[in-house]
Amino acid sequence: MYQDLPFEAFQPYGDLRHDQRWSTWSSVEKSAHGPEPRPDWVITDDGAIDTDLGVLKTGKEADVFLVERATPGASGCSSVLAAKRYRSAEHRQFHRDSSYTEGRRIRKSRERRAAAKGTAFGRLVQAGEWAGHEFAALSSLWSAGVPVPYPVQIDGTEILMEFIALDGAAAPRLAQLRPPLPLVESYFGQLREAMAVLARRGLAHGDLSPYNILAQGERLVIIDLPQVLDIVGNSNGMEFLLRDCRNVCSWFVSRGLDVNADELLAELVAQAW
Ligand SMILES: Nc1ncnc2c1ncn2[C@@H]1O[C@H](COP(=O)(O)OP(=O)(O)OP(=O)(O)O)[C@@H](O)[C@H]1O
Ligand SMILES: [Mg+2]
């Protein structure tokens, strides 16, 4: 008897399931939205509903969930997003040392005092600092044309971003692949260009490895960017850049490509100045 009723009849406003929430798009400040021009799949509707689809991957400092954002109704649309939720300091298994954050400051003094005191709020501020830094890096690098997931929005310690999918599942990490040589060559070209764009902006990823690069078919996408750092402003900048070069080059060498970390480093450094 209810079969012909529209979807709204089953989902009256205010009556959400335990795994649903109202889209947080409108409740965050405009500055917490991703850069323009926005991709057309980004849903900005006030009436949209977010449904948690479960954990995609638990990491050392954050967990990544799948969230579907959808507008109800026959003409509704939906998109699946990756939600990276940073844990507070006491729930992390990994603590980046201060060599990453050197030169960076928490601006608001109340937050700085809380962080220094180690209060629960302070630990949240620190988790938010990493989330905020990753969101800012994703935003500026996406605008510069670097292949990173589009950052949809940030809300406290949660970043909602483009889900990098392949055949309906999460795209695999480069580390687990053995592509044919022509594709390996193409991947190296893409990565070298992406690292060069960062270098021209004076930046290094800081934790680049085949585990933080996804292969979406023939295209590479770089992820996990909270620690992006200033090559010159950070006194360990060159070491981080060299480590990034070594990590990626050793994967390419193991897949049959004749590349060299020192040469890549020299090429990037030449572009940074
Ligand atoms: N936008 C995305 N699209 C598809 N998969 C993603 C996305 N973001 C993250 N992932 C998956 O979740 C994993 C963890 O993400 P990320 O590396 O950003 O977090 P992390 O806490 O640093 O994890 P780790 O400790 O494993 O490095 C990734 O290796 C990847 O498999
Ligand atoms: Mg990672």
Which molecules other than protein and nucleic acid are bound? adenosine-5'-triphosphate, magnesium ion
> Approximately how much beta-strand content do the residues carry?
15-25%
Q: Report the major sheet.
A: 6 strands, antiparallel
Q: Which stretches are low in confidence, meaning pLDDT under 50 for 5 or more residues running?
A: 1-12
Helix content: 25-40%
With helices defined by DSSP (H or I, 4 residues minimum), what is the helix count? Answer: 6
**SSE arrangement, N to C:** EEEEHHHEEEEHEEEEHH
Name the structural class.
alpha+beta
Mean pLDDT: 88
The Cα radius of gyration reads 20 Å
Instruction: Give the N-to-C terminal Cα separation.
Output: 71 Å
Major beta sheet, strand line-up: 1-2-3-4-6-5
Question: What is the global morphology?
Answer: globular
Per DSSP E runs of 2 or more residues, the count of β-strands stands at 12
What does this structure look like?
- The chain is an alpha+beta fold and 273 residues long.
- It is 32% helix and 21% strand.
- It is built from 6 helices and 12 strands.
- The strands form 4 sheets. A 6-stranded antiparallel β-sheet has the order 1-2-3-4-6-5, covered by helices on one side. It has a two-stranded antiparallel sheet with strand order 7-8. Strands 9-12 form a two-stranded antiparallel ribbon.
- β7 and β8 form a beta hairpin.
- α2 crosses α3, α4 runs parallel beside α6 and α5 crosses α6.
- The N and C termini lie far apart (71 Å).
- It binds adenosine-5'-triphosphate and magnesium ion.
- Adenosine-5'-triphosphate binds next to β2, β3, β4 and β6.
